[in-house]
Amino acid sequence: MRLGKYLLAGLFIAFLGTGSFTQAEEDPSYLEISAGTWETLRPNRTEPEVDLTYRSNVELWVARPQVGVVAARDGDYYAFGGLASDIALTSHIILTPVLDAGLYGGGGFRLGSHMEFREGGELAYRFQNASRLGVAFYHLSNAGLTSRNPGSESALMSYALPLSDLVP
């Protein structure tokens, strides 16, 4: 499992050097809602999940800050902040690797710590109005902070609405 984390971190760092990131000025701030499954890789524990994320258009080198909350039907929740980097594969297809840190709680699956880290990404289609429709996959774990570290995965469909469409 640690090899996978190092590989994902290495890929993220490699993307930092590609120069294919979209410019923050190209896209507005987003309000993203996602729905899918929590504990996706544990068929006997899979629950519905809903995520709400605010992604800023402020550029910090090649990443954009984001904050959000995850809620699962079993009562688990995760509030996070982190960084997302948009990589334009084409003018409409956007790959967004994400690294977050946050607080976890609830009465469902025990992840071993209240401090958890989420890594993963989203592949989305960006429409002419800058809204996005995509699929996402994330892994949540405490990165070995405690001896119990089973991790959790989420598979989601997402829709990102430009905040400029909500606020005149």
Molecular structure report:
This protein has helices spanning 2-16, 163-166, and strands at residues 30-38, 47-55, 64-72, 77-84, 87-88, 93-105, 115-126, 132-141, 152-162. With 168 residues, it is mainly beta. It has one domain (2-166): Porin (Beta Barrel). The longest helix is centred in the N-terminal third of the chain and has 15 residues, at 2-16. The termini are far apart. 29% of the residues are buried. The model has no long low-confidence stretch (mean pLDDT 85).
Overall geometry comes to: globular
Strand content: over 45%
Uncertain runs with pLDDT below 50, 5 residues or more?
Answer: none
- The first-level CATH class name: Mainly Beta
Radius of gyration: 16 Å
Q: Could you tell me the mean pLDDT?
A: 85
Helix content: 10-25%
Helical/strand content category: mainly beta
Major sheet characteristics: 8 strands, antiparallel, barrel
* Secondary-structure element string: HEEEEEEEEEH
CATH architectural group: Beta Barrel
- What's the total helix number? 2
> What's the CATH topology name?
Porin
Strand numbers in spatial order across the main sheet: 1-2-3-4-6-7-8-9
